Amino acid sequence: MSATFLGTPAFPTAARAALADTQLRRNLAHATGTIRAKRAAVVGEVDEWERLRLAGAALKDRTLRHLDTYLVQLEESLTRAGATVHWARDAAEANRIVVDIARVHGTDEVVKVKSMATAEIGLNEALEAAGIHAWETDLAELIVQLGEDLPSHILVPAIHRNRSEVREIFLREMGRHGKAAPRDLTDTPAELAAAARAHLREKFLRAKVAVSGANFAVAETGTLAVVESEGNGRMCLTLPEVLVSVVGIEKLVPTWADLDVFLQLLPRSSTGERMNPYTSMWTGVTPGDGPQEVHVVLLDNGRTDVLADEVGRQALRCIRCSACLNVCPVYERTGGHSYGSVYPGPIGAILTPMLRGVGHDTQLDSLPYASSLCGACFEVCPVRIDIPEVLVHLRTKVVDAHRGEPKVQNLAMKAASWALSDARRTAAAEKVSGAVGRVLRGTKRRAPGGRGVLGALPGPAAAWSDARDVPVPAPESFRAWWARTDGGRRGNGGAK
Amino acid sequence: MSARDEILGRVRTALRDVPGTETPADVAVDRPEPRPTTHEDVELFAERVADYKATVVRCTPEDLPTHLAAALEGVPRLLAPADLPEDLRPADAILDEQLTTAELDTVDGVLTTAALGIAETGTIVLDHGPGQGRRAATLVPDRHVCVVRTDQVVADVAAAVARLEPTRPLTWISGPSATSDIELDRVEGVHGPRTLIVLLVG
Ligand code: SF4
């Protein structure tokens, strides 16, 4: 019961498919527009917002430049507070640690609160392979999981689904995995949320082991914080006997007193609220209150590679607020799936290739180009990550990695003129286009405005047209039309 | 090599450009100071809590019993932390002496005090000390009635963090639970208490 981003085509191809999906585009435009307006309003309330941003960026820089010191300090604080600390070099190691903890407790299920880190490492798939169900408890993640689907936005992962689709998924799937949805379920969001409450409560009350991430980890005290809205986080962090938190090594902040800067920056940038409904903080084990066995898995999985890149390092300041997604003209039109990663949008376009490395994968190498470099992402970023700067830096790295290979674009231009100069070849291109279109969307593609567009051109032009919409050539050339109709004065003067 | 040593080694290699003499304090951080509390903050707190679709009732200590009774109407089985001050505790309240989670699921509401309130964000913070119950007690029941004294209200988030003790578990609550996951339509009340009533006394 899971889907992965594996095999996502390069950004331009995936984006083109998404562009043809009008439902998706409407949902996205509505979502990003609404959140943008809310954010702007609550950010405007804070007189010293710019100073807060600078403080947030500086605190994260301080952490990152001395990360070894802070990691060791965090480990000590956590251990002192009764938590067990694990270190994971990569996804496989982190997954193994979590699976082993679940196994020791003889459980075949865990409840999960939404966490980008566990999505990044594919923890749910690893648990399932070990015969352990991982129940996502965030409403949107539940919709995504029950629909065997992929998240499309950091904050509202199911934004590509509308209410009637959610109702169908709940009616069809909930009963297969636990408490069924009421048969008379309507598609009002309140009723759908109530169905999720009833379905998940059963799981919260019986789960022995919970898995979370953390928004922040305080080195000085060993305090972890999870910021959320629905209360599923509180359920996971409080009710089970065992809690495992997978924490990226960039999530640290130096001291308890530093936390308030981020607690001000995050909710306003993220959901556009002064404060999110619930924030939970815990420091190891509290006797008689909450989980009595607490594990923290410190995850590298490519982060030290990002850290080693002096320009790209700033991406590790990211607090995953998703503000950069909501202002991005490219994201707004293509949605999250096109980025082929759990980290979509502008931050995904820089973080994903840096975490996995450039120069060995077309999909990854295409991501730094998924931007018009308009700079809106930098302006909203609460920790002032200069995403355009990193994008340009990564483009250079991609080009450097491919030096010596034939100049793809020149070759493709020549090929395109060859293909378009002959009606027969064009027809072949249209046929290919149709096939590609059907494979991608099951519909004939239309450019914005309804104009027909060609998909991939055949032969060597494919590489070039992959990244562009080539207008469908008219069935009759202008010269042929002029000759046939005497410039429109004769016969059928209209176009064929 | 252990994963720990390997990761720490990678971190050190990655940071080769950072001069060995640099200390964390060398990375300057200029940050806004906590704002001092003024008497307008109580009003602001009440307003902002209400903004989140929580119910806010302002009252004097003398009126409190009347308002408390009203807030607890329709709650046949009320849970109270065993150390809730006696003058707040209704006679028929069930005391939480480590009830099981299943037992918690059978009560209809819970009554607690709080550690502090934050005016700017309309937040109540529980540090789960005396009168506030353990975390599960304010989570599983469907109604949370919380008594906050006006002298517990601080101006902003920075002031709250400065006052709180991080070694305690902390729950920050800004309105009842909510979701906007379906078409961005806000629905109040998902997993936590669907009704939050704040009695602001003083
Ligand atoms: S890059 Fe900045 S704006 Fe984007 S998600 Fe991260 S913190 Fe938010």
Automatic annotation (TrEMBL), chain A:
Residues 315-385 form the 4Fe-4S ferredoxin-type domain. Residues 73-299 form the LUD domain. NCBIfam families: LutB/LldF family L-lactate oxidation iron-sulfur protein. The keyword Transport applies. Signal peptide: none annotated. It comes from Pseudonocardia halophobica. This is Iron-sulfur cluster-binding protein. PANTHER family: LACTATE UTILIZATION PROTEIN B (PTHR47153). GO terms for biological process: lactate metabolic process. Pfam families: Fer4_8 (PF13183), LUD_dom (PF02589). Keywords: 4Fe-4S, Electron transport, Iron, Iron-sulfur, Metal-binding, Repeat, Transport. It comes from the Bacteria. One of its GO terms (molecular function) is metal ion binding.
Automatic annotation (TrEMBL), chain B:
Coiled coil: none annotated. Gene3D superfamilies: NagB/RpiA/CoA transferase-like. Residues 100-201 form the LUD domain. PANTHER family: LACTATE UTILIZATION PROTEIN C. This is LUD domain-containing protein. SUPFAM superfamilies: NagB/RpiA/CoA transferase-like (SSF100950). Transmembrane segments: none annotated.
